[in-house]
Each structure stands twice: as C-alpha cells, then as structure tokens.
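Morning. Coffee machine broken again, so started the prediction first thing and wrote up yesterday's gels while waiting. Chain of 122 residues, entered below exactly as on the submission form.
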Amino acid sequence: MTHWSLAYVVNRKIGIEGVKKLIRPMKRINWLAAALVFVALNALFTSYIVLGLRTGRIPPMAGPDLPQTIFYLVVNPLTAGVVEELVWRGYLIEGLLASGRTEPKAILLSSISFAFIHGFFP
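Came back before lunch.
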C-alpha cells in the first residue's frame, strides 16, 4: 500500500505527463544488454533466496494461502520496484538537480534517502 501511495502523490504532484517524462529514456537503450542484466540480476536474486531457504537463514513462508503467496512473490516486488525507481531515481533526483545540486550530490542524497526507507540490517 505504501508504494501505491507514493505513486499517487508523485502523480498528483507532477501529473501523468511529468511521470511519462521521468520514465522515458533520454538516450537510446541497448535492449539486449538491458535484458541480459535483468536476467542475470534475477538469477542472482533467485539463487540467493534458494540458498537462504536451504540453509535456514530465510524461514519458509508458512500459513499464507495461494493469493497471498502470489501477491508476496509477484505483485509486491513488481510494484515496489517500479514505484521506487519512479520516486527515488526519477522524481527525487530530478527535483534535487532542479534545486541546483550537482549530479553526484543528487545521486548521493537520493541513495541515502532510499537506504533510510529500507532500514539498516546487521
């Protein structure tokens, strides 16, 4: 619900055309390279989860029924990723740049903000 609330606030603030500008690539994209990175990162993440489940570092999900499991494994990660990229990599960085900050400083501040919303885990 938090992700959808953030998306709603950004959409209300800058409008649908502003959102389209944030998600539209400014440069030509090498789609093959992007797809390979996407597949590689997903394979790495899946391996991490499987290893964590097998070693007991990640407890198995017990109790949720099928719709809840689908939500936790499919819907939530997709919406979280899209909204987080929209807010932190799009809206926040663009806002920081517009306020006169340099690109490295804007990226650093956005990254710190992103880390704080996810917390710190030892």
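The mean pLDDT is 79. Going to sketch it on the whiteboard this afternoon.
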